[in-house]
Amino acid sequence: MSLPVITGDKEEVYEDPLDLMDEIDELKKEKDASILAHFYVDGEIQDIADFTGDSLKLARDATKVKTSTIVFSGVHFMGESAKIMNPEKRVLIPDMLAGCSLAESCPADQLGSFQEQLRAEGRSFETVAYINTSAAVKSLCDWIVTSGNAQEIIGRVPDDKEILFVPDQHLGRYLMEVTGRKMILWPGSCMVHEVFSIQDLIRAKRNNPGSKVIAHPECPQNILEITDFIGGTEKMRQHVMSVKEPTTFLVATESAMIHAFEKSAPQHNFVPVPGIMVDTGETCACNRCPHMARNTLQKVRDCLRDGTPEIVWQDYFEKARAVLDKSLL
Ligand code: 13P
Ligand code: SF4
After folding, report:
1. Might you give the EC number(s) for this enzyme (predicted)?
2. Which end of the chain is more exposed for a tag (fewer CB within 10 A), N or C?
3. Fold adopted by 196-284
4. Nearest CA to ligand 1 atom 4
C-alpha cells in the first residue's frame, strides 16, 4: 500500500526506504555521481552518502570527488560553494528551496551599502563571512570561515584592520571572546540555534545529574554560558568520541546531529535540548532545521534520476571562488 506523506510543501507517496537506497546506489553508478551529506540531514541520507561531515570538511571533500556529478544533500549555500570550488562538475541539490535563515539575513545589496557607508566614514576593515551566505555575499568579502576554521582565519586578518563579521551575531560574539578581536557584527542568526530554551536546558541538567552540555557556537550567549563544550558539528563529534566514560550529553544543536553522534560514540546517551515554548504551551520542535528537512531519500533519488535541480555557474562565482579557495583550501 502506498501512503501519502507530507514533507515540506510537497506531498510525497510513501516508498520503502530500503528500495530507495537500492535505487540510489544503482543511479549513482549509472550517472557517475557521489553524494555529500551534511550532519544535519536525515540519518538515512547520511548512511548512503559517500562523504558526510561539517561545512568545512564537505567543502574540502567536494574538491576530492572523482565522479563528474556531485549531489549535495544539505542547503543551497553548500551546493553553491561546491559548484564554485568545482566549476567543471555538475552539482545537483535535492531541493532548490532548502535555504538558510542566516544566509537570508544578509542580502548582498544591503551588505554592499553598509560596506560603502563604513568606507565613507574612513574605516579600514576586512569583511569576514561565515560560509552560511550566498555566493553574491561571498564575492563582497575578504575571508570565508566555517565553525571549524574561524579562529585560525581571524588570526590572518592584519591587526591594524577592523573586522566586519557577517551574518551570525552569536558566532561573531563568541569569536570576539575567544580571539580577543573586536568586530562589527551583522545582526543575523540561525533560526534553529536561536530558540533553545534556557529554562528547559537548566531543567534537563537538573534531571540528568552528571550530564554535560555540548553546544554549537551559533547558540546565543545565555546557552553558551552554561555549556561544557562549545564547537562546530565536527568538533563536537570529535569531543564525544574522545570521552570514553559513558556520559549523558545534552545536545544544543540541530537534532539530526544525534545520528552522527550515536554512530561515532555509541557508549553515550544523547538528549536533544528542546526549543522554546510556543503559544499553546508546548515546546516547539524547532531544533529540526526546516531547510535541512527538505532533503529526503525520494528527492535524492529524483534529482539523480532527472539531473535537476542543478546549481548553474554564475559570473560572480569567479570572485567568490578566489575568496573560498584562499580561506578553505
Ligand atoms: P557546521 O557543520 O560547519 O558546524 O555548520 C553548522 C550549520 O549550521 C550548517 O548550516
Ligand atoms: Fe541555516 Fe541554521 Fe538551518 Fe544551518 S541549521 S542551514 S544555519 S537555518
Report:
1. 2.5.1.72
2. N
3. Rossmann fold (3.40.50)
4. 232
